[in-house]
Amino acid sequence: MLLCLYMLLTGRASAQWAVIDPTNLAQGIINTTKQIVETSTTAKNMVSNFQETVKIYKQGKEYYDDLKSVKNLVKDARKVQQTILMIGEISDIYVNNFQKMMQDKNYTVEELGAIAFGYTKLLEESNGILTEMKGVVNISTLSMNDKERMDVVDRCYNSVKQYRNLVNYYTQKNISVSYLRAKKKNDTDRVMALYGSASERYW
Length: 203
What we know:
This protein has 8 helices and no strands. It is mostly helical and about 200 residues long. It has one domain (about 1-175).
């Protein structure tokens, strides 16, 4: 019965996955960010390259917003949903904060490239977990029983949750670098205004 519920979730998600696959969305962001790291030698160049990342992110946002509206799922099926949504949240944290960092004069172009590289690795690892889970909930994986599937879903959910928390931490540590540099220049108000209430809570 639980397997049927997984099929219902993946059937709805599968219909959407046929058009928009969340693993492909994340991989698209990973690929464009790698190009940013490899080819961005000036601030203008970086902004131009990052626009493609934003484009892919916006394409995925509608998918993630639709997935949020799916209610009344059993506990384990909900974990599948929440794992997918956390990948979207990781992309959201990266794209929105990196756009602000590109406006922040406390970072060099080289430092922004290094920050983008860090985001890429974190998103790459979490997307690998999502790919694993996607294979497990697929009905073609007949060698696994329901409990084994649920155990893998639990592990994937917890792993992606750790990566989501790590991306939040990574973001705040990078913002703290800007804040400390701004403090030396008596320019903290500008940094606080740029990053908003999240940075105020952090400090």
